[in-house]
Amino acid sequence: MIPTVFLLIIGSYLLGNILTATMISNMFYKKEIQGLGSGNPGARNVGRIFGKKAFIATFIGDALKGALAVLTARWLGFEPTIEVIALLAVMLGHIYPVFFRFRGGQGISTFIGGLLAFNPLVFIIFVGIFVIMYLFIRSFTVAGLSAIVLVPIIIASLSLGTGQFIVASLLSVLILFVHKDDLKEKYMKERSESK
C-alpha cells in the first residue's frame, strides 16, 4: 500500500498541472496562451494579452492550487513540514507540468496562495517586506523575488522548525531559478540605461 504522504505529493503535483491560464484562454478566448506574448501560461502574460479580468481570474485560480495542496496536507493530519512539501510539489507541477511537456508558469501565484494557507503571519511579513522593498526599488519582479528569498529567514526567525526552513529554502531556490531570465533581462536593461 502506498503511504498517504506519497499520494499527497503525487496528487499535489498533478493538481499543479491544471494551468488556469490555459483553461481561461481556451474556454473564453479560444486561443492558446502558450503561443501568445511571452508564451508563459501565467497570470502576468494572460493579463498582458487578455486584460485585468483574465489576470485576476488566473491569479486566483493558481493561488487556490497552492492553498488547496497545503490545506489538504493539514486536513490529512500531517505536520507543517509536509504542508510545505505539498506546496513544493504543486509548484513543481505548475512550473513543470507533465501534461504540457513540462512547460508551465513561473509559480508566483501558486506560492502566494500556498504561503497564505500555510501561515498567515509569515504571509503578512512577506507582504510587508515586498511593499517596503518596492517603495525603494520600484520593481515588482525584484521586490517580489527578494521577499520570497527572505521567506526561509522569516520561518527561521519565528522558530517554526528546521524542516520548514529547509523546504522553504528549496522553494526560494526553485523560484529564483525559474526567474533567472527575468533577472538577467532586468540587469541588462539597467546596465544599458546607466551608460
From TrEMBL:
The entry's keywords: Acyltransferase, Cell membrane, Lipid biosynthesis, Lipid metabolism, Membrane, Phospholipid biosynthesis, Phospholipid metabolism, Transferase, Transmembrane, Transmembrane helix
Pfam families linked to this entry: G3P_acyltransf
Compartmental location: Cell membrane
Any one Gene Ontology molecular-function term assigned to this protein's record: acyltransferase activity
InterPro entries linked: G3P_acylTferase_PlsY
Primary enzyme class: transferase
Top-level division of the source organism's lineage: Bacteria
Keyword Transmembrane: yes
Pathway: Lipid metabolism; phospholipid metabolism
UniProt catalytic activity: an acyl phosphate + sn-glycerol 3-phosphate = a 1-acyl-sn-glycero-3-phosphate + phosphate
UniProt-listed Enzyme Commission number(s): 2.3.1.275
Membrane topology: Multi-pass membrane protein
Transmembrane annotation, as ranges: 6-29, 54-76, 82-99, 111-137, 149-178
Similarity comment text for this entry: Belongs to the PlsY family.
HAMAP family reported for this sequence: PlsY (MF_01043)
Physiological role: Catalyzes the transfer of an acyl group from acyl-phosphate (acyl-PO(4)) to glycerol-3-phosphate (G3P) to form lysophosphatidic acid (LPA). This enzyme utilizes acyl-phosphate as fatty acyl donor, but not acyl-CoA or acyl-ACP.
Subunit structure: Probably interacts with PlsX.
Name of this chain's protein: Glycerol-3-phosphate acyltransferase
Species of the source: Sporosarcina siberiensis
Native organism taxonomy: Bacteria, Bacillati, Bacillota, Bacilli, Bacillales
Gene designation: plsY
